[in-house]
Amino acid sequence: MPAARVIARAALSDLRSEDFAPGSMGPKVEAAIGFVAETGRPASIGRMEDAILILEGTAGTTIDVGASGLSFR
């Protein structure tokens, strides 16, 4: 989408209210939400090639119960 922005960090509650395409990010976001809701631990979504950057917090999206709102890159 032309107006789309990359979400860097998201609170679980805020991400649940967003709408993601069922054939694209939807399943990934739902799986991450389920993991965070069940475990209370953060989950990250991103490209495998960016694994190190995701762990450093400079790529991908991290969903966290302790986060506040949505932060964009």
Describe this structure as you would to a colleague.
The structure is a single chain. The chain is α+β, with helices and mostly antiparallel strands. It has one domain (7-72). 34% of the residues lie in helices and 21% in strands. It contains three helices and four strands, in the order E-H-H-E-H-E-E. The two termini are 16 Å apart.
**N- and C-termini, Cα separation:** 16 Å
Helical residue percent band: 25-40%
Question: Strand share of the residues?
Answer: 15-25%
Tell how many strands the DSSP assignment holds.
4
Q: Which strand order do you get reading across the main beta sheet?
A: 2-3-1-4
Radius of gyration: 12 Å
Derived from helix and strand composition plus strand pairing, the structural class reads: alpha+beta
Summed over residues and divided by their number, the pLDDT gives a mean of 91
Order of helices and strands: EHHEHEE
Spatial shape: globular
Low-confidence stretches: none
- The quaternary organization reads as single chain
Question: What is the tally of helical segments?
Answer: 3
Biggest β-sheet strands, sense, barrel: 4 strands, mixed
Q: How many domains in all?
A: 1
Please render the helix and strand layout as text.
Elements: E1 7-11, H1 12-16, H2 26-39, E2 43-45, H3 51-56, E3 61-64, E4 70-72
Parallel strand pairs: 1-3
Antiparallel strand pairs: 1-4, 2-3
